[in-house]
Amino acid sequence: MVLWVFGYGSLVWNPGFDFDEKIIGFIKDYRRVFDLACIDHRGTPENPARTCMLEARNGAVCWGAAYCVKGGIEKEKAAIQYLERRECEYDGKAYVDFYGEGDSLKPAATRVLVFISTLDKEANKYYLGPAPLEEMARQIATATGPCGNNRDYLFLLEKAMFGIGHEDNYVIELANEVRKVLRGLKEKRIVGSLIARKAHPPFMRV
């Protein structure tokens, strides 16, 4: 027996556990969305971050990376314990077929573990649900937590998907909107600084 784990968010660039093999590929009938709250890594309870989760969608594919853990039950147990602590906002698990590059008919691995979330705000306190692109971008641009800010999570995912050769248009669109928000915030700070200088000019010696 071996353990397979599918990563579609930060696990793509930072798995964080000991594994023996990594395969680039995809799972079927799921798509990646930024509808999950994170309050202890990239955000806080007062200002939660938006991180990605899976949404079931017939005909969709979600690219990422599958990690194989071999070497016995203790090694598998250590990986699972680490992942359950790290992925604590996800309230469910599923086992899916994983397809490698170049073969969309025969799975490269079966019973691949993936962390999922209930799409119900009453049943799952971490489920934020969808929101307009601009609103999501403002939240991502301003949220920060003990492990860093939310925007870096998004930008690193964008970079990682480019690195594996399977860019996600949804991620790119959201990242570009966040950059637009950040530019606007920077411009506001500059204008505010100029106004403050005019209102309180520096003391000049004569």
Automatic annotation (TrEMBL):
The keyword Mitochondrion belongs to this UniProt entry's keyword annotation: no
Family named by the database record: Belongs to the gamma-glutamylcyclotransferase family.
BP-aspect Gene Ontology terms: glutathione catabolic process
Gene Ontology cellular component list: cytoplasm
UniProt GO molecular function: glutathione specific gamma-glutamylcyclotransferase activity
Taxonomic path: Eukaryota, Viridiplantae, Streptophyta, Embryophyta, Tracheophyta
Record organism: Elaeis guineensis var. tenera
Protein name: ChaC-like family protein
Keyword annotations: Cytoplasm, Lyase
Signal peptide bounds: none
Subcellular location: Cytoplasm
Required cofactor(s): Mn(2+)
PANTHER family per UniProt: CATION TRANSPORT PROTEIN CHAC-RELATED (PTHR12192), GAMMA-GLUTAMYLCYCLOTRANSFERASE 2-2 (PTHR12192:SF19)
Short name of any one Pfam family annotated for the protein: ChaC
InterPro entries for this protein: ChaC, GGCT-like
